[in-house]
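subagent[fold] <- orchestrator: predict structure for attached chain, return tokens only, no commentary.
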Amino acid sequence: MWEALSDQAKAMEAMADGTALPTLYLSSLDPGVGKTQALYAFVRNLVRSPTHAGVGVLICLGRLEEVRSFLQGMNTFGVLPPTAVAVMTSDAALNALGHPVPQEAQVLVTTHQRLERMRGRRLSDASAFFYQGKPRAVRVWDESFLPARAVVLNTNVIGGLLETLSTINPDLRARIKAMMDEVEGLPDNSAYTVPDFGAEFGVGLPKVNRAMGRRVPTRLKDAAADLWHLSGRTANVRCGDRDGWSLVDYRDSLPPDMVPMLILDASGRVRATYDDMEARGLLVRLQSAVKRYDNLTVHLWDKGGGKSSFALHGDELCKEVARTVLTKPQEPWLIIVHKPHPTGGDYERLIRQHLQGADVDVAFLTWGNHIATNAYVDRPNVILAGTLFYGTAQYEALKRSVADQRASDACVSAEALAKVKAGETMHHLLQALCRASVRRCVGDGCPPTNAYVIGNNRHGFQGALAEAFPGATVRPWRPEGLKLTGYVAKAIAYLSEMAKAVEAGTKVRFKEVAQAIGMKPENFNRDVREHPIFSEALDELGIVEVGGVSRKTSFQF
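subagent[fold] -> orchestrator:
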């Protein structure tokens, strides 16, 4: 881990000295290892270095909350001069925390959105980001990076533009409505060439934006930008049962001269998107060191945990989440839930209702806000009350954007889509669970943490958890507890009592347990040991089976 952090520092030093290769550098150390602390230390030392007085730093963060946290963390171990840092965001109060003239501050902190808004224009032409009249040499991108913006344009969203378009040109509206009908008549995974609306009607995107005005939701403005981007292009059509029809493509959003740049993304080791960037020669992986998660126990409830499942069974699922919290009422918990659903309800509110009257310490986050916060690192229990998935169209758009593969080039194979989906699933699991105490480092591992995940195993959660958290123990999470009956119940009761009295490492032979519960030894294996609930109950007790090479003979506590 120390060597990997040194690799990160060397990449930034090479940028500062002008010797870095023109490429993306990826540091994918796990959460809590120290990527951000290393960045703080590097920036403080760079600002203090007379040799590097003319070297500017550009730091790009995901959200406004992260900008505020970053500014606080930067000064934790030594305050920088107030003139050294500037902030460039859409929030005037945040901007006021830094130098009033960004071009005069050696360190500029901004958001991903600010860079993406450049729509592919060159950084060397954007004087707003300069320091002392030239582009900033040290560039750092925190969290998820894509070289282009994935475009998934749903026909239902296009329909939301029709009213505005009718005020510009009724024939344009009719043409777009006809296009929607054509797309919705195509089979899934079809190529479709979008009409060139700008050339056909002489209407550009700026005119559409002016007609929409300022009060139109951002999603409609983005949809208009995507539709005009697709004009005259061939896109792929995906049809999902829930999402309807979508046009899939990607478009340039970042300056083409962003390199050299350092990406700090803990999910870099699990996401397939970085594999494609590496295969294209866009990216170099810095040394990594995978954290150990032997102290993490994940309880997996094999049940649908997506938005639709919660919309249908929200109260039942929330009731079980609350019941699980009450199994350890004296310990703090973190629960990550879906955002409120128009038909399913407010899931945080439902869980709190089921906890009503209980004196428990519970904090909540919603999916979408489950990245880049350290506010809950002292909570040893975390529940993922549902899981985050995208539609097929989104996974395809991600794949095309990183592989630079247009719809006119080729179809995306089912295997490639499955790989992207698996990577994104691991990304969300890693980021969400690492909001709790599992984020912290104890040596090369994590502190004892219990995680509870609701997710249908047809999505491969068992394998995803094992890959994202090497060394972690994955056990079943049964809503009603283990239903033990007959000789299985008697055997577990006997072993439970024995566990209270014996020392760790003690062994008891299968034959002895069978005799103790009044069962013939020859039936014990078939009727008790091979019962799946018995195996799960042994796991709960921390009991393993031991014996010779060919067969087991005893239980060991």
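orchestrator: received. Logging for downstream: The chain is about 40% helix and 20% strand. The radius of gyration is 28 Å.
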